[in-house]
Amino acid sequence: MSLLRAFILSLVFLAAPFLLAAQGLDTAQIDAALGRSGQKAGDVYRFGFPRTDLHVRAAGVEVKPGLALGSWAAFNGTNDHASVMGDLVLLESELNPVLRSLRSAGFEISAVHNHLINETPHVLYLHYMGHGPAAEIAKALHAALAQSATPLDKPAAPAQPAEAPPFAKTIEDILAAKGRWSGGVLAFGISRAEPITDGGATLAAAQGVAESINFQEAGPGEVATTGDFVLTADEVNPVISALADHGIQITALHSHMLTEQPRLFFMHFWGVGSPASVAQGIKAGLDKVHLK
Q: N or C: which end of the chain has fewer CB within 10 A?
């Protein structure tokens, strides 16, 4: 082999990882399949499908879509070898048609369960994962969503966000974290300290492994909170006790994935009260979690 040829081959070998990384995802193909644009979060391309068609009440509180009714999908990988995972908010009558559609496309179902209790109408949450060419799995996901009444039309351009109300600063100060105010909901995504893997791949916070804590107004001087704590086994009961001591109800405890490491439990909760008292309860729970 000539020195020139050897040199060229060595350059190709060294460049291969960078060429693969550069390939990434053709987000335009995914957008076309799903009928809307997603948001980049590092290597993850994430979509939201809020159930704006539903009018759900829990404990007398009208639940905003951003509080607990947000279906989502997170893509990563490359055009030819992509994965998508997420969570779909469904009525009981929608669950099995959507589930059958996903399974017919080879998707894995990793959980079906509740997040809330005593809500009307009753809603269920379906967690899934799919693998394959990005455009194909996006089309399959769209076909499954079409088995429900989930709004699939391209959403209207978002209105100029309103200024967050005073309770937002109270909560942010107590949690020592900055939330995102949108659609009447103050949302926090707080990352765990250790890496989480599934199928040997490290998951990003945008793939559903961050502590997800949401707040909305629930009446004069009160807020409602719900979301999910992402916990290892030894954290589960300390967090249950911390939340219960502050009057925050546990509404569900279950898995969302099948092969994650370390093993994780997702704890859902519901609390209503003054912004300070509710935030202090959430802070007591977060203090029991291994966070960054």
A: N
Using an 8 Å Cβ cutoff, are 101 and 144 in contact? yes
Residues 83 and 34 both lie in one domain: yes
Q: What percent of the chain has pLDDT over 90?
A: 88
Record the pTM. Answer: 0.90
Q: Are 244 and 280 in contact (CB under 8 A)?
A: no
Total domains in the fold of the chain? 2
User: How much is the CA Rg of the chain, to the nearest whole Å?
Assistant: 21
Strand order in the sheet with 196-198: 201-203, 196-198, 260-261
Residue 223 resides in a domain: yes
- What is the CATH number for 252? 3.30.1460
pLDDT at res. 24: 81
For residue 203 the two structure tokens come to: 């998951």
Q: Residue for token digits 């987000």?
A: 27
What is the DSSP-derived secondary structure letter of residue 195?
Answer: -
Based on the fold, state whether residues 128 and 222 are members of the same structural domain: no
Within this chain, do residues 43 and 139 fall inside the same structural domain, yes or no?
A: yes
Task: Tell me the C-alpha distance between 229 and 240, whole Å.
Answer: 10
* Res 102 pLDDT > 80: yes
Task: Write b or e for each residue in 30-67: b if 16 or more Cβ atoms lie within 10 A of its Cβ, otherwise e.
Answer: bbebbebebeeeeebbbbebbbeebebebeebebbbbb
| 191 and 232 together in one domain | yes
Predicted pLDDT of residue 281:
98
- What are the beta bridge partners of residue 90? 124
Q: Are the beta carbons of 152 and 53 closer than 8 angstroms? A: no
Do you know the residue count of the chain? 292
**Same domain? 137 vs 171:** no
In a domain, 182, yes or no: yes
